[in-house]
Design a protein that fits this description.
The protein has 140 residues and is of the alpha/beta class. It has three helices and eight strands, in the order βββαβββββαα. The chain has helices at 56-61, 116-119, 126-133; strands spanning 31-36, 39-45, 53-55, 74-75, 81-82, 84-94, 97-106, 113-114. The strands form two sheets. A six-stranded mixed β-sheet has the order 3-7-6-1-2-8. Strands 4-5 form a two-stranded antiparallel sheet. A hairpin with a 2-residue loop joins β6 (84-94) and β7 (97-106).
């Protein structure tokens, strides 16, 4: 097995592996622009997230829509629970589709995440997303 520095180690060796690092060109997040009640919001596409969410800073930029209580707990990939401020219903648009969806608001300054619940409702233009990432189109 190899570590980040491309050095071989075996199961008996003690090795420190980085969980987080500055993303390389190929590790940059896939981003998409959506409109929440008419305001453009850049979101990170996250197929590992069951739900879509925005941090409270974006919620404030949306003029602080009234939040409803949420009876759920969200755990981050690294383990800690996320503090949920609440949720609100909004017109969410991506590409040519617009739907009334619940927008979950969490405390903190992390990225806005476009999760699986919205991926099932709003169909994204993957060609445009790939182009934005600098990934060439595949031709058959």
């Amino acid at each position: 097995m190899y570590n980040d520095d491309n050095h071989y180690y075996n199961d008996q060796d003690e090795v420190e592996l980085k969980l987080y690092s500055e993303p390389s060109e190929s590790e940059r997040p896939f981003l998409t622009d959506v409109y929440i009640d008419g305001k453009k919001v850049q979101m990170e596409i996250d197929t590992g997230s069951a739900v879509s969410l925005i941090p409270e800073g974006i919620w404030r930029r949306l003029k602080r829509p009234k939040l409803n209580k949420v009876n759920a707990r969200l755990k981050s990939y690294t383990g800690p629970l996320l503090e949920i401020k609440g949720q609100f219903e909004a017109e969410v648009g991506a590409e040519r589709a617009t739907q009334k969806l619940q927008v979950l608001v969490v405390e903190g300054t992390g990225p806005a995440l476009f999760g699986r619940n919205w991926l099932r409702k709003l169909h994204l233009n993957w060609k445009k997303i790939y182009k934005r990432q600098g990934i060439p189109s595949v031709r058959h």
